[in-house]
Amino acid sequence: MTLAVLASRALVGLDAPAVRVETHVGSGLPAFHVVGLPEAEVRESRERVRAALVNSGYEFPAGRITVNLSPADLPKASARFDLPIALGVLLASGQLTPPAGQPPEALADLVLAAELSLTGALVPVASALPLALGLVRERPGAAMILPPGSAGIAAWVPGLQVYVARTLAEVAAHLTGAALLPSAEPAARLPTQAPPCLSDVKGQAGARRALEICAAGGHSLLMSGPPGAGKSMLAQRLPGLLPPLSAVQALEVAALNGLAQGGARIPGIPQQPPLRSPHHLVSSAALIGGGARPRPGEISLAHHGVLFLDELPEFRREALEALREPMETGRVAIARALRHVEYPCAFQLVAAMNPCPCGWRGHPTKPCRCTPDQVARYGARLSGPLLDRIDLHVSMPPADPAVLDGAAGETSAAVRERVTRCRDRQQARQGGLNARLAGRELEGHCAMSDAARDLLRQAQQRLDGSARARHRALRVARTLADLEASERIEVRHMAEAVQYRVASRGQA
Question: I need a labelling partner for 267 at 20 to 30 A (CA). Which of 137, 385, 406, 409 fits?
């Protein structure tokens, strides 16, 4: 055999497109070429493969070796192609022979991904979990060979057969049938810290109510109030009101974290929805994702969780405007000259801001030092289209000292029970959350009483609301009805939903 074909995988976002590693050993002057749009770490595999073969007891062929990574128009990065290249050299040079009767397709269906050390040991690869997720989505029941440290992480993915190998010689013995590799055991999952409890927040009944609605329907929320009103405390307790992540959601969140870290280690599989709180000096690329090799940004790291933006008007205008499309679609596309990557980002936006630059506008005891022009410029930092995409707008009064000395409020566990029941109703009715309802789904699932319909029409006329604002008020009203287990939207639900839209007019 002078030609060997093995399988590996590239990585584009959370997708793992197939890569055929074709190795040819022919006559001619000794040479080793890797073609197929390889990047620097792939081109350097020639020296690693040469040393690993010799130190593992094999001969390095003295002919012309050509390795083609197909498809040729897909950029190939990472040293994970070392293992299939080395095995391809052994097969093409006749030093390895597959078992008799084994079809050539059997080798081409086994996915190989590992970096080689010069001793022939397998080194853990970065992003093992995204590779495994991408593979099992395309080919359920597929099999792959990974080094220790990576195999245990990939074994978390159901429907995937993962073998663990420590050296190149062990993989060679598996391919020839001399000694089969063991199946990988899932790595231990690290415990996650429970989020803080809602009972720590005393008072602010209106904001607590809005936070429950936000959690129940997957809505976005903007809180405005003076310093110390409890905006940050409420936002930090939102993940504790949400149901635990499903198995698939937890794997997606862990995979995105692994891509962002760029290393081979993943801290663990989260149980609770993530909470991301970037500083207001964050760049657009760090917020939505980017770089020469695009990595997930904060909005993707908040996938299935909460993105909290404190001091919202202090964020850069271009960074905030970049949120508009991802908030609608739940995905973000990052385009570079040679790469186009798409990441999921189904997050809930929770934001907080002061009523003015000094923060004391409207405070009963502390005077505001801001001029009307300063207040207007401060509010103008937030565009109308961005505010229009936020479902719930809440103005929070200053904290009442008498309330702070009172009894603790309702716990997160009690609120989470109501939120879970509400979300179960939405899943049974439409297969998703109310915040994602669009088009005909709104008409089909948002039955209203005549009084509620009239109120919505009047509110839209008086507030000069856009069609988007109408739809968002309708989604919030649907969530309010679901919290009461009501089949249709009544006028009380619509009245409360409209009030959360009225507050935004004073902030745009």
Answer: 137
